[in-house]
From TrEMBL, chain A:
Bilayer topology annotation: Multi-pass membrane protein
Official protein name in the record: ABC transporter permease
InterPro entries referenced in this protein's UniProt entry, alphabetically: ABC_transp_perm/SBD (IPR051204), MetI-like (IPR000515), MetI-like_sf (IPR035906)
Subcellular location: Cell membrane; Membrane
GO biological process: glycine betaine transport; transmembrane transport
Annotated Pfam families: BPD_transp_1
GO cellular component, one term: plasma membrane
Residue ranges annotated for the ABC transmembrane type-1 domain, each copy included: 15-211
Primary location: membrane
Native species: Rothia terrae
Residues spanning the membrane: 20-41, 62-83, 95-117, 163-181, 193-218
Family: Belongs to the binding-protein-dependent transport system permease family.
Top-level taxon in the UniProt lineage: Bacteria
Amino acid sequence: MNWLMNNLPYVGQLSALHLLQSIIPVIAGTLISIPIARLAVGRRRDGRSTAGHTAGSAFKRGAVVNTAALLYTIPSLALFVLMPLVLGTSITSPLNVYVALTIYVVAMMVRSAVDAFESVSPVTLESATAMGYKPVRRFWAVELPLAVPVMLAGLRVALVSNISMVSVGAVIGIQSLGTLFTDGLRRNLPAEIIVGIVGTVVLALILDRLLALIGAWLTRWRKA
Amino acid sequence: MKDTDVLDSPNAIEFKSVTKKYGDVVAVDNLNLSIPRGKITVFVGPSGCGKTTSLRMINRMVEHTSGEILVNGEPNTAQEPHKLRRSMGYVLQQAGLMPHRTIVDNIATVPRLNGTSAKSARTEALQLMETVGLDTSLAKRYPAQLSGGQAQRVGVARALASNSSILLMDEPFSAVDPVVRQDLQKELLRLQSELQRTIIFVTHDIDEAVLLGDYVAVFAVGGRLAQFGTPEEILREPADDFVASFVGRDRGMRRLTFAGASDVKIHPLTSQHTPWQQWELKVEDGKPAGWIIDGRTIPGGSLFVEGGTLRDALDSVLSSPSGVGVAVDRNGKVLGLLKSEDVLAATEAERHRRYGVNA
Amino acid sequence: MNIFDKTWAWFTADGAWTGAGGIFQRVAEHLGYSALILLIAAVIAVPIGLMVGHTGRGENVVVAITGALRALPTLGLLTLFALWLGLGLVAPIAALVILAIAPLLAGVYSGIAAVDKVTVDAARAQGMTESQILRKVELPLALPLIFGGIRNAALQVIATVTVVAYINLGGLGRYLIDGLAVRDYPRMVAAVVLVALLALIVDALLALLQRALTPRGTR
């Protein structure tokens, strides 16, 4: 407690940095995942799902989902460290963390976005087509809103996991609440580490709650 | 000028040598069929007979392989699929409502797609809710909050909102329970008497086909049209063994649906006593309330309502504990009793009339 | 030489594979830590998941706990435990067990809970005891989701065990941390490749095991 009181501005500043690194990759990763997943799912134009699948579409879906899963096996620390090689940035550039975390969010979100699009009732899509929706408008007006509930579940997991992963960036010197861990270890200050852990968890719980509220509003049609 | 010509022509939709193949499998085989304007035409048949495929080819949810489908005299391939679809209503088995939209917005979907303002589309949607017998207080609810029957009514209202002369209905009532289904069927007939749209209705239930259809098209497995005619024609003279077996063992009974019972004598209730001494009809406030025998009261059978069919008359006799049917007026007041021998004689007379034989 | 050639050179250098600090030793350490962590986590998570999934009691608690566990930063736990427990094996194992519990618990719980209630009801109606229902009906039918949780946990643990090198332990993370200290990129790339390969192989083995255990009718 004492440590926190004495370092309040510092912790606040690190929290803000942590927040930024938590939110931006989640937004970017989600925006990237949605088109990938939608293309991977593939549906015939009349809205009947490809369940039963042609060999080609099953392969496409499998390739996308498995590639995403493969990305997830790369240790976060390694991804942070190797980013400069790919991006040509300096090793301490925050961009490394943003891009690396975005990749993780994509790895997690593609799967649930695929599930989400597959969860949309073919009957509903079919009736939309039968009423005269063209494919693009049908995607925005019907398919995407109906995919939200399943996507949201994945998004909440991705968000929370991402918040906890942000702290690993501290090992390569990117400032966040994780800095309290590396600093606390070096200076032998358990209190500093505890502040970091509690701060991270509180941040995760608040953002998760917020996302849940947004989700409840977006899916208010589900409650009978 | 052309439009009026088209609407004057007796047929709304014509199938001309239409075939649909999936690979080598023939789903619909050389279909030739003219669907009369302003009537209910029912496609009926066992599963896999191509009835739904035929329906879906009309609005190009399924594209036909060869032949031609004319809608109001023009090939349905003349306009883009989405425009064609917006021009006709479509009701699906599971209603297919948009779960994320309120009831009123669901009904307003097609007018909105056609560019009607949100306000007037909603006004129209509220009127349509009343038309199909839905309480407008449900307008702001979501589909998940409706019963199956209510959802189907919304589905019908939504199809009507396209304001087209053509309504496609794909087994719309098959997923609701029998009581609700009866309500919906009656409602559809009432609506049709007001609106007189061209309705194509798919079902696998011959009873539903006979009840609703002005015309019935019986499909056989393999996508062959086995018979097209009025329900009475199909029950009276099945074109082949397939149709005969499909319309079923009860077709004799079903056919009585088309025969009036005006010939059947209604015996007045002269006293508390019925023609059968030991049975006594219990009457409360002028309405039948069961039969009394040996001091016990036994619930009565089905009632023959004034103006009913021969089938109703026969059923009232067969279901009555006393073997005597009870006839009531439209307010449920007892008119008199029906004797089985009179009913049987009426069926005989009807049969002779049907085949033009003198009794 | 580009980075790939340099990495290749690192893999093929004398003594890269065998001996102290060689690849074989690091892989063995990495697998050893991972297996131990998964085992301890399973001993804790599986019984809880089975009970909650079967009885339906405590669902909210489980959902809340798995959510909170996911939010716990592993690096934070690792450093904190290292300060408290010293630089031995206990600290990283404890930190990573906590990481692995969330996916395991979620997989077991949701797997059992997702089994069709009608099937369970039918089993009960035929006179199965609750433990028979759990063992002979729910568990076999829940296997796909349970294995989903196990594979998820294994992937996370194998990827994250690299972090233990940060507190001077072994495993493939050694190459990463030591490489980072001297900006030796080929060594770090090699570490990434090795960890990814290891994760894929373990995942494939678990997939085979899952296939062998899943009842034929539900494959």
